[in-house]
Design brief:
heterodimer, A: 168 residues, mainly beta, five-stranded antiparallel beta sheet, B: 150 residues, three-stranded antiparallel beta sheet
């Protein structure tokens, strides 16, 4: 009588062919040039990054491209303690929602060059870019964001800063 | 911007699950290594394969497993002209519902056959086994048609 099997590998692989579309293509091309860019809604003026070609609030097309700062503010964060298979980053590390100056919505990226216990909502950060010759059509052009020596942004101001940054 | 300027690329999203088999499927898979097929006996006396963990009528836990034959009869089938990469066979084949000898319900598996015209409901088939069993359903690689006795 054979031994029962207790564990089995049951992977699921989904094969996609991703087409970026106009807005995402433009975003990725600007990213390859080392620029974070968004789109502004002509009705509500909200600036979205990454741009999707439409405003999710107003439901209308967005055309105007806005160059954003690579400085921003931590809107939210989590400290990851659990290793994810295949992920080269060793825990514990910080994943944060960051609002770039000039944008009204956050994207998710890593924080680095910091003490995890020091990370806080409202903290000012800036992008650490890979060497220029490695830039491609990907957010990985930015290795991570690191804290900068500026005063914290009050919670109610997060997501409202102009592209020129935080004068406070 | 013309459509040809739009960025595109293939990518694969993988969910690399490892799952526990449970007490019943675990024994079923273990027996496959020995080229044996285990079934469960339900509360109504029916022999069910692959064996469910719980009785389909009473929902009681099922623990008694009985062996059924690696040979059976095609109940129904569907020919696959163009197998996809994820299919168990990379040549045209049939999905079949096979009622194994000793079982009361059919199970779904694949049937290797020369062409669609060679398959019919009622055909006798037998299991083909992998040379290197791993305790997976693919240890039973496929079914093949049993030549009619002359």
């Amino acid at each position: 009588m054979s031994e029962p099997v207790t564990i089995m590998e049951a992977p699921v692989y989904l094969q996609y062919h991703f087409t970026a579309g106009r807005a995402s293509t433009r975003f990725l091309q600007r990213l390859k040039e080392g620029v974070l860019s968004g789109q502004r809604c002509p009705r509500c003026s909200q600036v979205y990054i990454p741009p999707r070609g439409s405003c999710p609030a107003c439901g209308i097309a967005t055309e105007e491209e806005v160059a954003l700062s690579d400085k921003g503010t931590v809107q939210s964060f989590t400290i990851v303690h659990i290793p994810i298979p295949g992920n080269p980053i060793k825990p514990p590390y910080v994943v944060a929602n960051i609002v770039a100056d000039g944008a009204n919505i956050s994207f998710i990226h890593l924080l680095g060059d910091c003490e995890n216990s020091d990370v806080r909502i409202g903290q000012r950060v800036e992008a650490v870019w890979r060497p220029r010759e490695e830039w491609t059509w990907a957010m990985e052009n930015i290795l991570f964001f690191r804290p900068i020596d500026e005063p914290d942004v009050p919670v109610e101001r997060i997501g409202t800063l102009p592209v020129t940054g935080w004068e406070g | 911007m013309s459509a040809s300027d739009t960025l595109e690329k293939p990518f694969e999203l993988g969910f690399t699950y490892t799952r526990s088999t449970g007490p019943v499927i675990g024994r079923f898979l273990g027996a496959l290594k020995e080229q044996r097929l285990l079934a469960a006996r339900g509360s109504d006396g029916r022999v069910l394969v692959p064996p469910p963990e719980f009785d389909p009528v009473t929902a009681e836990r099922l623990e008694e497993l009985v062996e059924v034959s690696g040979e059976g009869v095609v109940l129904s089938w569907c020919w696959v002209h163009e197998p996809r990469a994820s299919h168990p066979l990379q040549e045209p084949f049939a999905w079949v519902m096979v009622t194994l000898d000793g079982a009361d319900v059919p199970m779904i598996h694949c049937l290797r056959a020369p062409h669609a015209g060679s398959v019919q409901s009622g055909a006798r088939v037998r299991a083909c086994w992998a040379e290197q069993p791993q305790g997976r359903i693919t240890d039973l690689c496929c079914f093949e048609l049993v030549e009619k006795q002359v």
